[in-house]
């Protein structure tokens, strides 16, 4: 029997790990999660997550839903508003993006390059593509960034000559291998190489183990987030590097295509993600030496 919990005093959330668990549950596709998947996302041992789930369940913050041998957990409906207030407004309460303002700002930025109609169409399509698989409360800023990236790529694709080489890294979820490769290349090349990423089936966010593996070698993720693969991204690239995404990437003449056989970091502990990172870094350094040979 669960202990009654005062909705105004969810002290069990004072533990930061429990707050992270609830955030993951709240932002999951259907508002519920399994202990094993939570452990994977948090890079924690399953018994550790089970311990926290037991405390949350005893306090009535979460409810259990047995499903055969599995047990799903979701935030108790009577505490949902209070949990949102303690964690910060979630996707359910986020206001819709101001697409008119986003369009106006980008139309000013690309004045003389693209018509306002082209900018609006790109913004609307970018929003629709991201909204399909994202529960992020940052959907508005991500829409603006994604639309700007697409317009820049389209502009480069339409230019006859580009002095700076462009590399596109593509994997399945755009949350692991491609983000590792892009982060390392940006750090090594600076402004001498334009770097983009995409996914054939993008996830909602970059995996925490990937962020950690990059951060510990001094590579910031910045404002990067998973993005769907688009036609103009491929057309704007000089080199397209695929990693496990099969035939999802369109082929255009004049581009160099590389397929790197790299293990997927999804579900791997940090030690294995480090090994994947190091493998990717060796390949990135070799590619950079070809793109920018020493003079």
Fold and architecture overview:
The protein is an alpha/beta fold. The chain folds into three domains: 11-87, Arc Repressor Mutant, subunit A, CATH 1.10.10; 94-161, Orthogonal Bundle (Helicase, Ruva Protein, domain 3), CATH 1.10.8.1060; 162-295, 3-Layer(aba) Sandwich (Rossmann fold). It contains eleven helices and seven strands. It has helices at residues 16-27, 35-42, 46-58, 80-87, 99-109, 116-133, 139-158, 177-189, 208-215, 231-236, 270-291, and strands at 32-34, 62-67, 70-75, 166-171, 194-199, 239-243, 256-259. The strands form two sheets. A four-stranded parallel sheet has the order 5-4-6-7. A hairpin with a 2-residue loop joins strand 2 (62-67) and strand 3 (70-75). The longest helix is centred in the last third of the chain and has 22 residues, at 270-291.
List keywords for this structure.
single chain, 295 residues, alpha/beta, Arc Repressor Mutant, subunit A, Helicase, Ruva Protein, domain 3, Rossmann fold, 3 domains, 4-stranded parallel beta sheet, 3-stranded antiparallel beta sheet, 7 strands, 47% helix, disordered N terminus
What's this, in brief?
The protein has 295 residues and is of the alpha/beta class. The protein has helices spanning 16-27, 35-42, 46-58, 80-87, 99-109, 116-133, 139-158, 177-189, 208-215, 231-236, 270-291, and strands spanning 32-34, 62-67, 70-75, 166-171, 194-199, 239-243, 256-259.
Secondary structure layout plus pairing:
Elements: H1 16-27, E1 32-34, H2 35-42, H3 46-58, E2 62-67, E3 70-75, H4 80-87, H5 99-109, H6 116-133, H7 139-158, E4 166-171, H8 177-189, E5 194-199, H9 208-215, H10 231-236, E6 239-243, E7 256-259, H11 270-291
Parallel strand pairs: 4-5, 4-6, 6-7
Antiparallel strand pairs: 1-3, 2-3
Helix pairs in contact: 2-3, 5-6, 5-7, 6-7, 8-9, 8-11, 9-11
């Amino acid at each position: 029997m669960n202990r009654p919990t005062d909705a105004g005093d969810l002290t069990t959330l004072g533990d930061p790990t429990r707050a992270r668990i609830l955030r993951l549950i709240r932002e999951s596709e259907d508002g519920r999660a399994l202990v094993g998947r939570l452990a994977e996302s948090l890079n924690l041992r399953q018994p550790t997550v089970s311990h926290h789930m037991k405390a949350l369940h005893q306090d009535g913050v979460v409810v259990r839903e047995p499903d055969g041998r599995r047990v799903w957990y979701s935030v108790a409906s009577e505490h949902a508003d209070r949990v949102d207030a303690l964690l910060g407004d979630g996707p359910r309460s986020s206001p819709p993006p101001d697409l008119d303002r986003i369009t106006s700002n980008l139309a000013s930025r690309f004045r003389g390059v693209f018509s306002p109609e082209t900018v609006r169409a790109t913004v609307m399509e970018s929003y629709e593509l991201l909204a399909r698989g994202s529960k992020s409360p940052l959907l508005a800023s991500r829409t603006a960034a994604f639309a700007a990236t697409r317009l820049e790529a389209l502009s480069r694709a339409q230019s006859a000559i580009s002095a700076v080489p462009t590399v596109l890294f593509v994997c399945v979820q755009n949350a692991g291998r491609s983000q590792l490769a892009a982060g390392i290349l940006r750090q090594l090349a600076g402004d001498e190489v334009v770097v983009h990423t995409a996914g054939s089936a993008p996830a909602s966010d970059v995996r925490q183990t990937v962020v950690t593996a990059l951060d510990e070698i001094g590579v910031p993720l910045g404002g990067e987030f998973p993005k769907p693969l688009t036609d103009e991204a491929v057309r704007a690239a000089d080199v397209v590097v695929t990693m496990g995404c099969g035939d999802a990437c369109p082929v255009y003449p004049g581009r160099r295509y590389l397929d790197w056989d790299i293990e997927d970091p999804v579900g791997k502990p940090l030690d294995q993600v480090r090994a994947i990172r190091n493998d990717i870094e060796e390949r990135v350094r070799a590619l950079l030496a070809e793109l920018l040979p020493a003079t």
